[in-house]
Amino acid sequence: MQTSVRILDTIPVTHNVRHYRLERPKGYRFAPGQATEVSIDRDGWQDRKRPFTFTSLPDADVLEFTIKSYFDHPGVTNELWSLGAGDKLILRDVWGTIQYRGPGTFIAGGAGVTPFIAILRQLNASGKIAGNRLVVSNRTEQDIILRDEFEAMEGLEVIWTVTGDAKSRLLQERIDADFIRAHVTRLDQNFYLCGPDEMVSDLRGLLEDAGADVANVTWEK
Question: Average pLDDT of 99-109?
Fold first, then answer.
């Protein structure tokens, strides 16, 4: 399936991240954590597909994506930054394996937090957020996506760590074996991972080496 939808508005999140809110096609359904391939409905861009995760709740009247733009090369996310209300995007079939399986620890690198947004929003809205933890690594505090929203979710434990912000009062630790030993005290829980491929691969190995059951680790396959 392929459908063209209008952008209703764009909302700044960080210096390089925006919410893109779109009209919702009738019957278009997704589960929190799922994604679709998106193209810009503009000459020369229709066939340039990129995967983006839905960050709106599944019963919302509009669709939302929370997208980081990379300005260092002329790709899709850079072009998206130039769009606004009335411009169109092309959506395709829904897919994705990151879905909630029960309380656990969500670990993300940078924009890898986006598949967790709708999941945690839904848990918060339904009063089921308690018992979950969010761990996110960013380069600087200014790169943190939806910090205020996550910190306001009562019952969600949040750990921010930064790797290139010497003035920050947040943790300044890489998510490595030492981090896992220091901050993950329970290995008999669900783990949800998203970020750069190398980071996710390393984390899967670190968790397994520490004693976690690989059957309880969810990532985008």
Answer: 97
